[in-house]
């Protein structure tokens, strides 16, 4: 059996789609999987069981990337095609079953919309596939025997970013309750991510620098060793939740009702004001600290 799984360009949406991908892996354990996604998300799927190929879709003018995808897939008969991009490409491929998610934004949890494509209820939680070698390597960065609290001060656009000085204030509040805790600063590759993380790294010189130079699955392995993750609405927030660690997402001009972190121990807090229009500067550090400490207490054995 061959399955074609067409998923997101953005990391956060790709992570959210892993729940239904995992359900396909469980349902068809001998299937051979081809996954089409954007370059930012490609590393997320490198360890998926039954993976045959990852097709990286580089966006091209006039939507020619869809023609590229058709050319890459048209020579094969697919038993199942799952298209979460709602593209026309899926209709021009030979496929026994087609499960296509219609495009456009709509209210409600994104995970519920994804699950509906395969008629799954309740929506399966996202997951991430991590190798033992990646877990072993993570131990070299995130040490055992300490309470490591991960901070995610970056995002893909400025409006979703809680000010860097608020993270410093938050850390001092957390340290008053957990004096032995140590921060780890997570951020993605590239100059912009490094620029956004730098003020927090400079303000917390004892922090672990856990960003910029790791693959997505290596990052997931490091996150899995942390006691708690606190960060802006971003792909890293969704990745943290998918590892199963306690995760607190910070929201302002994005909608938690749609994109709240989905995980067994995930919560969110939003700045006061209209959903999707509240400035991140309105989110006070003491409120975030209270939510984080409550989450940590509720999830500590």
Automatic annotation (TrEMBL):
A GO cellular component entry from the record: cytosol
Record keywords, A-Z: Glycosyltransferase, Transferase
Protein source organism: Acetobacter garciniae
Keyword Iron: no
Database matches in CDD domains: GT9_LPS_heptosyltransferase (cd03789)
GO biological process, one term: lipopolysaccharide core region biosynthetic process
Statement: the UniProt record of this protein carries the keyword Cell inner membrane: no
Protein name, UniProt field: Glycosyltransferase family 9 protein
Annotated InterPro entries: Glyco_trans_9, LPS_LOS_Heptosyltrfase
GO molecular function terms attached to this record: ADP-heptose-lipopolysaccharide heptosyltransferase activity
